[in-house]
Design goal:
With about 120 residues, the chain is an alpha/beta fold. It has four helices and five strands; from the N terminus they run E-E-H-E-H-E-H-E-H. The chain has one domain: STAS domain (Transcription Regulator spoIIAA, 2-Layer Sandwich), CATH 3.30.750. The protein has a five-stranded mixed beta sheet with strand order 1-2-3-4-5. Strand 2, helix 1 and strand 3 form a beta-alpha-beta unit. Helix 2 packs across helix 3.
């Protein structure tokens, strides 16, 4: 499985590597929502600097977007920071973010080039 899940005091960090598929993105999402810590999490950091490519099928992206938006509307407030340095990966994540915003997600989203900047943003008041 080309990702590592790291639970932190106030949130979760995923480190994706290699070629990431829709199934792995869904598994990461399931890992988050099935864990009781997700109820109090304040952020998600998605680290993709070791990712070669993302094979995220459009229908799967729509399904995850709907699930995440539903969570945001149920009161779960999160900051989602992604770290990416490859344009094709940024484009896929930005498509997910655009869909989320079009569905009025209450989460905050922001992209970064490095983990320090992402971490500073998610931990800022």
């Amino acid at each position: 499985m080309p990702f590592r899940t790291i639970w932190e005091e106030y949130g979760i960090k995923w480190e994706f590597y290699g070629v990431v598929t829709s199934e792995e993105i869904e598994k990461a999402n399931e890992t988050f929502f099935s864990d009781p810590r997700s109820k109090t999490a304040q952020y998600q950091i998605v680290h993709t600097l070791e990712t070669e490519d993302v094979e995220w099928r459009p229908l799967d992206m729509v399904e995850i977007t709907f699930n995440d938006v539903a969570a945001s509307k149920s009161g779960m407030q999160l900051k989602l920071a992604y770290i990416a340095d490859k344009e094709r990966i940024r484009e896929k994540i930005e498509k997910y973010i655009a869909m989320s915003k079009n569905l009025n997600s209450e989460w905050e989203f922001k992209g970064f080039n490095n983990e320090k900047a992402a971490r500073d943003w998610v931990l800022a008041g």
